[in-house]
């Protein structure tokens, strides 16, 4: 990993991008990294496009702004493609992870790009099967840590359990843990 990893999350309000961004950062902090995690949204309501950001570094982070040139872009809602510029600032060697049933090749063709690494996972389908709700944030977190090994799967699972046990019913916690694991295994890339 370079000195600092910058991740931009694109989602619709209510899909859990802010929570996933924070959970990733908190897990990295527990592993001894320096972190920042914050959302960007206005007074919009559930369903409105929003962004969240995560920075992870081995050194103190002195930047205090949104992320303009992310290393990784995570798209929790495929319908945002074409509505917001998900590729803005993503370098030619950047990574794009999309929640979709489409293949990475199909997303590449849809975007009309030949560079960047593209990964896809059916996070909504996984969430419906494991949690019973179409909230793709935890599966997308699982896919992200598989594609970019910032922290281990076990560290994320332990942090999730620590943060949410007692706040949610045991079956909800277990469903989310399963969602993370499944997306970690099922993400595809090219």
TrEMBL record:
Q: What class of enzyme is it?
A: oxidoreductase
GO terms (molecular function) for this protein are: pyruvate synthase activity
Q: Which domain of life is it from?
A: Bacteria
Assigned EC number = 1.2.7.1
Record flagged with keyword Transmembrane:
no
Residue ranges annotated for the Pyruvate/ketoisovalerate oxidoreductase catalytic domain, each copy included: 13-185
InterPro entries per UniProt: Oxidoreductase_gamma_subunit (IPR051626), PorC_KorC (IPR011894), Pyrv/ketoisovalerate_OxRed_cat (IPR019752), Pyrv_flavodox_OxRed_cen (IPR002869)
The protein's matches in Gene3D superfamilies, at most eight in alphabetical order, are given as: Pyruvate-ferredoxin oxidoreductase, PFOR, domain III
Q: Which UniProt keywords apply?
A: Oxidoreductase, Pyruvate
Q: NCBIfam families from the xrefs?
A: PorC_KorC (TIGR02175)
Please give the PANTHER family that the UniProt record associates with this protein: PYRUVATE SYNTHASE SUBUNIT PORC
The name of this protein is Pyruvate/ketoisovalerate oxidoreductase, gamma subunit
